Task: structure prediction
Amino acid sequence: MFGYVLPCQDELKVRELREYRAYYCGLCRCLKKSYGFMGQLSLTYDMAFLGILLTALYEPDITVQDIRCMVHPAHKHMVKKSFYLEYAADMNILLSYYKCMDDWNDEHRLLKALYGRILWLKVKKLNKKYPDKAESIKRNLEKLAAAEKSNCSNIDYTAGCFGNICAAIFACHSDEWAEDLKRMGYFLGKFIYLLDAYEDMEEDKKRHCYNPLLASGNGEVTQEKAYQLLLMMMSEAGKAFERLPIIQNAGILRNIIYSGVWCRYECIKNKKAVPYKIGENI
Result:
């Protein structure tokens, strides 16, 4: 249910692409430092976006390094890290753990359960560090699982469960920007959930698995209806973003919100492979 909030590389300036890669690699380094190689496996574009967004909004101190790594061993590349990339790494692990446990409870997927067990000791500390956010993730995933088991036909409710999770993690502080961040996270979370459902529609139909777009209405949402739902979600997320006083890396963030997520949608719609994967080109 992750990996949809990514940039459209063709529309980024050379400087912006270099900057995005520096933050993306920074998140990877934060995961490695705090959680080791197994933590790095949970790396997502979505949390890289969150790290860039919060860093741009709050403008904390940023450390810059030129390093080599296993993915880019031939030459050094720039890496940027900040308090908010470390926060994004923590949220990345919390989301990964609770999603693994949810997948195990729903489908008894052994690999997910094993990965969740590996993360558990770290997650215990995160539960104490971020009790409200951990509880929100757990509670809303439980509500979502119950709704899916009951074949819930209310798209707004099921998507809203995942939206609530993203709303909780986007609001890092209780301050003047918290409500706009929550609103942005809520609608972006709904978009992610619905785009994931859109991608899985045919497979879920064949396997007779729950899919909110199949369960709603008369049994299936048309392509146009699905597009309109996704458009509404990103429209509201974009409105919330524009209310935030962001100048730093605004071009990168707008690229992701107004172009990148739709590149992913077009790939799914036309049944094309994603133009790049985590660790490739980025």
Q: What stands out?
A: The beta strands are 63-67, 77-81. The first strand starts at residue 63 and ends at 67.
